[in-house]
Description:
Pfam families: PH (PF00169). By secondary structure, the protein is α+β, with helices and mostly antiparallel strands.
Amino acid sequence: MFSSTKRLAKTSAIFSLKLTPPLTRSAKDLWRLDASEKYVRGEEALGPWRPRGISVVEDYKRLVAREKRSADVQAIKVILASSPPQPYSGGRPQEDILRGTLALWQKKFGHRGQIVLSQEPDEEDAIPTPALEPPVPLKLVAQTKLVPRSDMSTKAGYLLLLTDAGENTWQKLWFVLRRPHLYIYSQSNELEEVGVISLTGVKVESSVDMVALLGKPHLFTLFTSSNSHVFSAPNEKELHAWISKLDPTRIPSI
Length: 254
């Protein structure tokens, strides 16, 4: 929400606006519902582990089919062992035996139809078809929620905010953490409110590479569901304090 330069003396409430695409109405659109890349708060504790997709279902189907074939082979072995082979007496014509054998080879077992699971669209669906009329733009579904203002702050202090990455321009501002938002003021008297950052889906990262790239010490990046912001703390103690307050689930690096 830090996209407006209008300054306010004080806000009494904040409206949270969420725009989402409508729910799918056809089976062709189900592949678009892949949420494997969506960030889940606290997933850092899982380390290198990553959730698998529908390949788990395919592996399970192959395992079940292999075990079934193995069980069928063992059952046939028991039947053949219980009845030793006997010499051919000529009671049944060899042509009938050949036809029966070929019929068994050509017989299909299992389900007649096969359900194919895929997170990628079919080639037929991916090929664009010429339309006589221009496509209708997708209308997003809006959800508005009134977020009351909280006067209880968890953390407050001055931070440098990267306002222009191309020019490496920084601005010193006063930040106050009142969950679920981070309020931005021009001064510590909190009279002029510059902006508000929503902490929905927050993720905090701090790396040495960012420090070397931007040439500022004590850097950390705040990732939200709508934007990302780069801050510079005054010292190492404030850096760790802000990171722990903004994202309590983050495991500190040793």
